[in-house]
Design goal:
Blueprint: E1 11-15, E2 24-27, E3 34-41, E4 46-55, E5 61-65, E6 74-76, E7 81-84, E8 88-97, E9 104-114, E10 126-135, E11 144-154, H1 158-172, E12 177-182, E13 187-193, H2 200-207, E14 213-222, E15 228-230, H3 240-243, E16 259-264, E17 278-283, H4 293-303, E18 320-325, E19 327-329, E20 337-340, H5 341-353, E21 358-361, E22 363-364, H6 369-380, E23 384-388, E24 408-413, E25 431-434, E26 438-441, E27 447-450, H7 453-470, H8 476-486, H9 506-509
Helix pairs in contact: 4-7, 5-6
């Protein structure tokens, strides 16, 4: 068949990856070849992203970003033009800069032109990306659930806790308490509702002398950027397993018999790539078990079966997954998800009760007491805890839970081993792993690509599973030391605040000879 008889067009796809505090939303109402992108950014911040030109024609074409009309808050990092081979793509790195901009929404258009498409018989020669960048106002402290206070008391019996709850409510003007047993620390967690408009901080101070812990129900969010849905052709750009030499371990170790808890949003347990891998599920949100994007992507990185995943290779495909839903996305297709201390505490307790050997936390929030108490108990039980370092940039605060002692804090690098520009830095960083433009499975059989330290943490969790299959006697401290000792040094010689001890090497960690 001749090319003249084919209906051929050139397509341009824009993909944006941001920190958890800067989620991008795309609207593909592409009338007149226009796309709309809306996202938020902190004041005086620089956010890295990418605009990808995808050539679906049968011949090579040249694509260029129109610099003359580029919005002032957008910068192209590199050459603005490139020749893209047939059925291939090229990423133009860009940055969005809010330095000096007033709070509010700033609008501009990015035009990507295919300068040779019409000449080569393609029907489309440009795309217009309408950018709506909202600069946030200053934030006033950690976010928490309004009109709620969390209380932890010793557990003696169901009746005893019920009586203590009623007594506290009557004495301190609290509304009905929602009681949850935390068997791992022999305690009860009570979530008290407060009258509308109550001063949460004042109520916490009032309760503290009478209980083990009293605190607001702080909010946590998943440590990821925005994602763009793609198709199975993305599997050919999967670089993560090879970068950490996990591909050399295939056939030697698979994670068999090792249980990993993913405390996150829901997981698509019916995905063919995860068939038979989810040992148990638990919903701490009260909103029901759902197949969500973020949790499913993490599960895919850790344990996907490449034969049923469109080519995505899980690091430990025989691992047993505990699918713990503690975070709720805004919509079914939104990658970012919101959690709280109340849901995370229940999820952590469940992971310990079900004998997890590894717990993956690809989320972050403010420092607080209850989760720290539970994590200390998990580590004392010999459970390895892996956490995303955070996406608040080089000057961001150390991530919690990642900055806690004995937790393996993971930062993100790209395929060229360059640091993710939004990664939080600090002496708490243990190791680095792939986390930029990472491909994984998503609900409904699709693939997604996204960036963030969330995904880097999953690569390390998968590696930890392999190590524990081989050496189940290792303590969390010993396993962390092994990962650091066998990592590939990046950046300045020795351990540093950017890369920690360097890029994880799964092959060296298990002493494989491939």
């Amino acid at each position: 068949m001749s090319s003249r008889k084919l209906k051929v067009s050139c397509a341009l796809l824009a993909t944006l990856w941001f920190a958890v505090w800067a989620p991008a939303q795309s609207s593909s109402a592409a009338k007149n070849s226009e796309f709309e992108w809306r996202f938020s950014i902190r004041p005086d911040q620089v956010v890295s992203s990418g605009i990808t030109a995808e050539n679906s024609c049968r011949s090579a074409n040249r694509f260029e970003i129109d610099l003359e009309h580029l919005p002032a808050f957008v910068r192209v990092r590199g050459e603005p033009g490139a020749v893209v081979a047939a059925n291939d793509r090229h990423n133009f790195p860009v940055q969005f800069d809010s330095t000096g901009l007033a709070a509010g929404t700033h609008q501009g258009a990015v035009v990507i032109k295919c300068v040779t498409c019409r000449k080569n018989g393609c029907s489309q020669d440009r795309e217009v990306l309408q950018i709506y960048m909202t600069v946030e106002g200053e934030r006033a402290g950690p976010a928490y659930v309004r009109n709620r206070v969390l209380v932890v008391i010793p557990f003696d019996s169901d009746e005893g806790v019920e009586a203590a709850s009623k007594k506290l409510a009557a004495k301190h003007g609290l509304l009905a308490g929602e009681i949850h047993r935390l068997d791992s620390i022999h305690a009860a967690l009570i979530a008290f509702a407060l009258p509308q408009g109550s001063d949460v901080a004042a109520k916490v101070a009032e309760l503290l002398p009478e209980v083990m812990i009293a605190e607001p129900d702080y909010l946590f969010t998943t440590n990821d950027g925005a994602s763009a849905q793609e198709n199975s052709a993305l599997a050919r750009v999967e670089y993560g397993p090879k970068l950490i030499h996990a591909d050399r371990v295939r056939g030697l170790l698979s994670g068999k018999g090792v249980r990993v808890a993913i405390v996150d949003s829901g997981i698509d347990v019916n995905h063919p790539a995860l068939k038979g891998k989810v040992a148990e599920q638990f919903d701490a949100t009260g909103k029901g078990l759902t197949a969500d994007v973020h949790g499913t992507m993490l599960a895919g990185i850790i344990a996907a079966d490449p034969g049923n995943s469109g080519g995505v290779h899980g690091i430990a495909p025989a691992a047993e997954i505990l699918a713990i839903k503690a975070c709720q996305p805004e919509t079914a297709q939104t990658i970012q998800a919101l959690c709280s201390v109340l849901t995370l505490a229940q999820g952590l307790d469940f992971a310990m009760q079900k004998k997890a050997r590894v717990i993956n936390f690809s989320l972050g929030g403010p420092g607080e007491k209850l989760l720290q108490r539970l994590l200390d108990e998990a580590l004392n039980q010999g459970i390895v805890v892996v956490a995303a370092a955070g996406n608040d940039g080089p000057h961001g605060r150390p991530g919690f839970l990642a900055a806690l002692p004995r937790v393996i804090a993971v930062t993100a690098v790209d395929a060229a081993e360059h640091l993710y520009l939004l990664a939080t830095q600090g002496d708490f960083i243990a190791v680095a792993a792939p986390g930029v433009e990472v491909v994984s499975i998503a609900p409904g059989g699709s693939l997604r690509v996204s960036s963030g330290t969330s995904f880097a943490a999953a690569f390390v969790s998968g590696t930890a599973v392999l190590i524990l299959e081989q050496k189940p006697e290792l303590s969390p401290t010993e396993l962390r030391s092994l990962l650091e000792r066998t990592a590939k040094d990046l950046g300045p010689p020795g351990k540093d605040p950017q890369f920690g001890s360097g890029l994880v090497d799964a092959c060296k960690a298990v002493n494989c000879r491939n």
